[in-house]
Amino acid sequence: MLFDEEDVAYEEDVIRNPYSLKSWFRYINHKTKFCSNWVSVYLVYERAIKQMPGSYKLWYNYLKLRRAHLKNKCINDPEYEEVNNAYDRALAYLNKMPRIWIDYCEFLLDQCLITRTRKACDRALRSLPITQHYRIWPIFLDLVESFDIPDTGVKVYKRYSKLKPEDVEDHANYLKKVGLVDECAQKYLFLLNNEDIHSKYGKTKHQLWHELCELLAKNPTKIKSIKVEPILRQGIQKYVDQVGQLWNSLASYYIGLGNFERARDIYEEGMTKVMTVRDFTQIFDAYSQFEENLISNLMEQANNEGLDDDDDLELEMRLARLEYLMDRRPLLLNKVLLRQNPHNVPEWLKRVSLYEDKPKDIIDTFTEAIRNVDPKQANGKYHQLWIEFAKFYEKNNQIHEAKYVFEKAIKSNYKHVDELANVWCEWIEMELRHDNAENALKLIQRACVVPKKKYDYFDPNEPVQNRLYKSLKLWSMYTDLEESLGTFDGVKKCYENIIDLRIATPQIIINYGIFLEENNYFEEAFRAYEKGIALFKWPVVYDIWLRYLTKFIARYGGSKLERLRDLFEQCLENIPQKFAKEIYLLYAKLEENHGLARRAIKIYERGTDAVLAEERYEMFNIYIQQVASMKGVTATREIFEKAIEVLPDDQVKEICMRYAEMERKLGEIDRARAIYVHCSQICDPKTNNKFWQTWKEFEIAHGNEDTVREMLRIKRSVQATFNVEFNFMAAQMVVPQSGKPGDAMKSLESAVEAEVQQVAKSKETLNNANIPKSKNSIQFVK
Fold first, then answer.
1. Which of 3, 23, 323, 677 is the most buried (most CB within 10 A)?
2. What is the reported pTM?
């Protein structure tokens, strides 16, 4: 071996410590990094392995490296055999290591060495404990699955099934793949009959039955040891969720045997016994496909050989049979659904639509549906049956019969009150469609009669007819009809009844108020709003309060100021923070326009405490703006200070900058500087450059060297607070280029002095520009 100078230290290390893995790996890493010849790396590995032949880590990394270098080489390359020999040598020492066996078997499998891979897998299974066999078998099974070696594959799966009988499904799949159908069916029966064994792939027993039936149906001539029909009929009785597929499989079995009449009998029997749409659809589709195939085969035979009279008759018979089957499909499907659930209202309505041109059948279907459907168990809207029944008579201009149906409908029992209310509404709308407005008004009055004995609306033990008087849908229709056809007193009475029954919604209250306002009954509208306020709580009552206060202000302005103040105070008593902002601004605006300025200011101040935290900043801005316009900017100082105390840091920065700017404009330079000093404690110089730039410009315009030094000192202090490593980093940044670090504090002082000089130059430039100076600005002392 030839060594480089860089290898000497590593060679000495491994000579001193021949049994140290760290020393050898340091040497290997060095060779890997700096040596372009991989043979030298292999030699180091070989030397290390010679010293420690039982080291799993050395062997694993060595073999992994050798395999990695073979990626772009042909499998016929001699190096592949060298790696195979290396694996053999490794397994001589590490035959209990499953990872080495796995890599070796996969490596051989990649080389397509079938026999050698099989022998390696056998050796691995003999060497490893049985608890580790599960790691070798996937490779063994992959070998027989990847190559066409059925004899070996059958034997391998037979051995595997003894170890893991729960994987019999894989065995069955392989037998199906190689064409051993009879043995495959026996494995499926074993899996189905054994309740302790479940599908490896999460298949249900139904799915396994389906696969077995498909296997039997597609290979009827290859099945010798199994009686097919008893097995399938047993599955039909046992697995009711898959009867459609099982019936189809049984019919397909007879089709494969050429017994077409028996297959047709099976399809007809299946269609009359299934209980689900899925099963029916499966059987019907298979049945229709079967008939179409027979017709197409016969027509193809006619094209090739021609047809005689008997063949023509047979073709016409088959076409007629297929057409009859297709015509029967909708009714057969509907019958299946109704047999499954006789309370399915949509299916009854669909059945009515199937008898489009048969009035007698439609009437009989409606009658049967109403008689069979139980309202408590109805799937769908039971009242829709009555409504559609009445509409059927209406479409045929039989209004008297339609009214008779509605009379029966309102006496029927329903599950919910809304269903009966819908029936009443449809009846009333029918009267309106035929210009019987008077009858419609009488009907709604009849429906909305309040009984002497009050019933609980949600009591399921009471008939829905007794609870109908609390239906908001009917009362809303009543108010609409009264507004359109009735009198003012009738409409008012309707709304009052709704409120008295305590079924009103905020929108009903607002509609009542709008109605009264349109008729110039403003005080009654306000009383209606007050009733609504008494009915509801926050936050539902917010819309009523807002409209009430807005309309009251628009109506009276400042003429009833004390009453308005009482209303606002009553509104604000329990108002949630989410809705406080709008009300406080409206209250303050009222005081500004019609009241006292000091009261308005007090309301703004209350508003800053009552609103949500995310709205407080906006509220303070409005408060400051209004106080400045009423009492002058000097009066806003207390507001600024309060805002600084209560607002979060991100918003305090903006407030402080505005506050300082205001003091600067007032000539209060010291106050402005104090504000900047206070705000600086929450402004990181790395992320809040705007603040520090503003303060710097302020000092350029109004400060001196001492104030600039103080600003820079505060800036360093704040930055040190946010970053404990600031001083170290700053010292590194100011190191002279010569490489002599010097004193860190002196370097920092030099940086500060440089910045002070820069500020002085900026000041001098500003003075030379003939810009007018503030009377409070301070000149630099030279």
1. 23
2. 0.57
